[in-house]
Amino acid sequence: MSTSGWALLCAFSTLIGFVLPRRRQGRHRDSGGPPDEATFVTLHIAAMAAPSLRAGLTRDSARKAVRHLRTLLGTSALALADADEVLAWDGAAGCHRDDAPEHARTALATARPHVVAGDAFPCDRPGCAIRGGVVVPLTVDGRVVGALAAYDAVVSAALVRTVTEVARWVSSQLELAELDSSRRRAMEAEMRALRAQMSPHFVYNALTTIASLVRTDPERARELLVDFADLNRYALRRARDFTTLAEELHCVDRYLLLERARFGERLRFTVRAAPEVLSVPVPFLCLQPLVENAVKHGVAGAGRRGEVRVVVRDAGPEAHISVEDDGLGMPPERARGLLDGDPRQGRDEGGFGLANVDVRLRQIYGEDYGLVVETAPDEGTTVRLRVPKAPPW
């Protein structure tokens, strides 16, 4: 189990230990069911709040989460604040909402739980049930990013402990949100690097080939120029995480047509795909780098006629894809180095693209979905990947 996963499990265990007694003793009592039913209710409420918090601490996420958090604690009112303002309030006694920013600022400044009660919490409104509150800072990676403030008729030691543990759990969700954001930024950076990698290896040779045909076969040059524009329009359009297999195969087809114009009869290729999987969502630009690697090693590297085959099969809940060439192949340890992104294994020869696709697949689908490379010297190379038909979102 990862460190973050273990920390979250510990937070849940502690959270249940504090919240269950609180919910049994508070005004919102359980219906008298067995303890496991109360545990289920607590976990269910926490699960309802978690998706909003995983979006980070924003006005929208706070508004969606605050009601569930107040239900979890069973207090009269609850507020969520960031470093600048109160983002959301839920519960009765709106007269105290204007006091919440000052309470939050105290907790943010001291980075410690803050209790307001007695003379520090005056109220002259008839019938107001709130007589105090507990304000606990929310932290992400050691930084105070906000505060959770719970208000009720009595501020007991049990309430302080309970709100502190709920704040710890909220902080763990916000840390996971930060990790999600960092992962998205890393994937966007990898996408930009992948696009930059594609152009230097390909654009010069494609344009040189087209230029050589302008006088001898202008119609063919025009067709190839349209293919080149189509391919680059696809590769350079506004970034998206996913496309369909049909669009990705269309990109591969345009790439192979341009390479066929360059290599002539030295390059043969086939692209076969089961119709049932053409609409399956796949990571953007996940196949073209594999095909580019196959062309370089299967044709350019061998210096003789070679064949590249792209096959997409329907495999029940998954689509199975293979990119094969009959070129020189390589020792298995070199293939492992390419997947690991080892610069000593020759990123300029296509290894960068293989490592990039492998990392992206594992990040999106899990460690079981990386590339599988089958190769040996003089035996060609086959790169296999699997993608679930169901989208990962």
What does it look like?
The chain contains 10 helices and 12 strands. It folds into 2 domains: 3-180, GAF domain (Beta-Lactamase); 214-388, Heat Shock Protein 90 (2-Layer Sandwich). Helix 1 (3-25) crosses helix 2 (35-53), helix 2 (35-53) packs antiparallel against helix 3 (59-73) and helix 6 (218-236) packs antiparallel against helix 7. The protein is elongated, with a radius of gyration of 29 Å. 51% of the residues lie in helices and 20% in strands. Pfam families: GAF, HATPase_c, His_kinase. It comes from Streptosporangium fragile.
CATH level-1 class of the largest domain: Alpha Beta
Average pLDDT score? 82
User: What separation lies between the terminal Cα atoms?
Assistant: 23 Å
**What's the main sheet like?**
5 strands, antiparallel
The fourth-level CATH homologous superfamily of the largest domain is GAF domain
**Tally of strands:** 12
Strand order of the largest sheet: 2-1-5-4-3
Report the β-strand fraction as a percent range: 15-25%
- CATH-defined fold name of the largest domain: Beta-Lactamase
Unreliable residue stretches: 1-10, 26-31, 345-350
What spatial form do the alpha-carbon principal axes imply?
elongated
The arrangement of helices and strands along the chain is HHHEEHEEEHHEHEEHEEHHEE
CATH architecture of the largest domain: 2-Layer Sandwich
Number of self-contained structural domains:
2
Determine the fraction of residues in helical runs and give it as a percent range.
Answer: 40-55%
Organism: Streptosporangium fragile
GO molecular function, one term: kinase activity
Protein name: Histidine kinase
Domain Histidine kinase: 287-391
